[in-house]
Design goal:
By secondary structure, the protein is α+β, with helices and mostly antiparallel strands. The chain has three helices and eleven strands. The protein folds into two domains: 42 residues, no CATH class; 106 residues, no CATH class.
Length: 158
């Protein structure tokens, strides 16, 4: 189910390859798409705190297990699937404020209603977004999304 759901991501990503030959591999519960411009890998495995370099909120559970990573030149971007918790947005924001305090270059763009934390050290960038659940399935819950990457994060498409 996870692979089928992420096929749309692969198709959108491939649209940017502009006629370039690509290789698609769907072995071992993974979807990997490669081209000379980069690669996209979707796995049925939730990254660990050590792999992300960001603490995972203790009362949160993964909505689905899985991860997405893309490589473009010397840059790699990895995103964890959304997490969800019954704890309030304010509680989760306060927990991350404490856990991320002192991180180099920390940007705190949060309020008690949600927002995002971001920090960069050298060529590593980490982001945590927190907000109220918006779909019917997650109404009254809090969602947490964690992104981790290395390299230069492009600000606009080229």
């Amino acid at each position: 189910m996870l692979l089928a759901g992420f096929m749309v991501v692969a198709i959108v990503w491939l649209a940017g390859c502009g006629g370039t030959k690509v290789k698609v591999d769907t072995k071992n519960g993974k979807l990997q798409v490669s081209s000379p411009k980069g690669s996209l890998k979707i796995e049925n495995k939730t990254p660990t705190e050590a792999e992300l370099g960001v603490p995972i909120y203790p009362n949160a559970t993964a909505v689905q297990s899985g991860s997405i990573s893309t490589t473009e030149g010397q840059s790699t971007y990895s995103a964890a699937v959304p997490l969800v918790t019954d704890d309030s947005v304010a509680t989760v924001v306060a927990w991350y404020k404490e856990k991320l305090a002192g991180k180099p270059g920390l940007r705190d763009m949060t309020t008690s209603e949600g927002g995002m934390f971001a920090f960069q050290s050298g060529n590593e960038i980490k982001m945590v977004s927190i907000g109220p659940g918006t779909s019917a399935e997650f109404k009254g819950k809090t969602t947490v999304n964690i992104m981790s990457g290395t390299g230069t994060i492009p600000l606009q498409s080229q």
